[in-house]
Every structure is written in C-alpha cells, then in structure tokens.
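General statements about sequence and structure are easier to judge against a single worked case. Part of our work consisted of pairing the sequence of a single chain with a tokenised description of its backbone. The amino acid sequence and the backbone structure tokens for this protein are reproduced below.

***
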Amino acid sequence: MMWKCLIIDDDPIALLIVKKYTDLIEQLEVVSLCNNAFEAMVIMKTKKIDLLFLDIEMPDLSGISFIKTLLHPPKVIFITSYTEHAVEAFNIGAADYLLKPLSLERFLTAVNKVIGTNVPIEEDHYLSTRDGHLFLKANGKMVKVSFENILYVESIKAYIRIYRWHDIPLLVKQSLTSIEDMLPPDLFMRIHRSYIVSVNRVTAFTNHDVEIDKIEIPIGRQYSGKIKSSRPSVAALKYAD
C-alpha cells in the first residue's frame, strides 16, 4: 500500500526535514507541504490523505484543533517542540507524538507503527538486497544498481562514484568502506584506498594497476599483496607483468 501524506508545519526548516525523511521510505507519497491547517483543508477536500505529519503550535488553528474539525481524520503523527500537548494528542487518536529536533530513528519508529512494517533504511540511506543488486540513494531517488553492471567504484571525498557498464556514472553520498561492506567479496575487490573494482570486469593487471574497459586504475601499496594472492581465484584475468 502507498500511503498518501501531508506534512503540515509553519516552520519551513521542519517541513524540509520531515520531507527528507519521508523520501527515504518507498511506502510514503507526500502529496503536499502545507504551512498551516487551512492549506491542508483545501487539499483534503479533493484528495484522499492517509497520514498527516502535523505540527501543533501554528497560527490561527493549532494542529490539535485542526484534527478535531475533521469528521474522519486520517492517521496522525504529531511533530512538535512542546511536551505539554501529548496527553490531549493521544486522547484524540494520535498514532505517535514526536519532539523536535527530530531524529531519523525516532521518525522511522513512528512510521513503522502506522504502516505496520519495518522500513529497511540504513544510516547512509541505502537499501540492499541479496538478489544481485543494490538500491542506492542518488539524485533524490532510490536507484537500482546490478552487481553485474558495476565496473568500478571511486571515492571522492564524502561521495562515491559508481561506474557502470553502458550507463552514466552514479554519484552517491556514502563512504567507500560502507559500499565495500555491501558488495559480495567474491565479485569485488578493494585495490586502493580510493577504488573498488569488479573482478569479472578486469581485463588485465600489473603489479601497479588494473585495467577495466581500457581505464587504468592504480593499485595501492597496501593492497598489492591481495591482488597477487587472488590470482588463482581470478584465472580469467589476463596477467601482464
């Protein structure tokens, strides 16, 4: 089920934080960001909304007062800076009551409670599978990356760039070590502090570099022993001394 959501808060920064968190959860579709309850009312007259992420202290009409005006309110997760409204919020059926500043862990706990599943988000905002591919967050969406299409991975400061067969490189905000932990060790090898290569895509290597798709990638000194010891298991490679 896809849960259609509204995020309602008069604080623009809070709106963006909640939107960022919802974007990590494929079961949530944000219909709109609203600055107040009246904007939300207009949208709810024409669209079915399943879940509200709702601030309490807002001008003219508070979040709690807004819910009381609805004959059939959707599920509600209150997100507020104030603790004193918690009892009243739960009395009118709140699914959860979150305090600002909002952590991702606490947000996921609340969402899991509502949608009845465990949302598999890791701290670097990726999803992984065991079916020969990964889902990585890039360009504001989760992108499927097949192991067989990866040529090599390059570290660029706080990011990694994944070079793919017959596709444009993918830039992901993630460390090289974290992606190394996700990739099958029988298919991928770290050969440098800045590079991981697909063993099956290597066409030649020396003591100093490997070649993939006519691109020469350096071998770090601390990794040269790993390359030598791996030769029996990568017999398909063309060794050039």
